[in-house]
Amino acid sequence: MNTHDLSQFIVFAALVSVLAVPLGHYLMRVFTGQPIWLERVFGPLERLIYRLADVKVEEEHYWLNYAAALLIFNALGAGLLFLLLSYQNYLPWNPQQLPGLAPDLAFNVTVSFITNTNWQSYSGETTLSYFSQMVGLTVQNFLSAATGLAVAIALIRALTRREQHTLGNFYVDMTRTTLYVLLPIAFVVALVLIQQGVPENMHAYVTATTLEHATQTIPEGPVASQIAIKQIGTNGGGFFNANSAHPYENPTPLSNLIEMICIVLLPAALVISFGKMVGDRRQGRALMVSMTVLFLGSFLFCYLAEAHGNPAFTAFGVDQTISKQNPGGNMEGKEVRFGILNSTLWATLTTATSNGSVNAMHDSFTPLGGLVPLFNILLGEVIYGGVGCGLYGILIYVMITVFIAGLMVGRTPEYLGKKIEAREIKLAVLAMMLYPTCILGLGVASLLIPEALKSISNAGPHGLTQVIYTYASAAGNNGSAFAGFNANTFYQNIVIGIVILIGRFGIILPVLAIAGSLVTKKITPISNGTFPTHGPMFIILLTSIIILFGGLTYFPALALGPIAEQFSFSQPPTQP
Amino acid sequence: MNWSRHIRSSFVLLVFFSLLTGLVYPLVVYGLGQAVFSHQADGSLISVQGQIIGSSLIGQDFTMDIYFHPRPSYAGQGYDARASGGSNLGPTSTDLLDAVHKRVLALGTSGVSFVPVDLVTSSASGLDPDISLAAAHIQIARVAEARHASVAEVGAIVEANVITRTFGVLGENRLNVLQLNQALDQSMPVKQ
Question: Mean per-residue pLDDT for B46-70?
Answer without folding.
Answer: 95
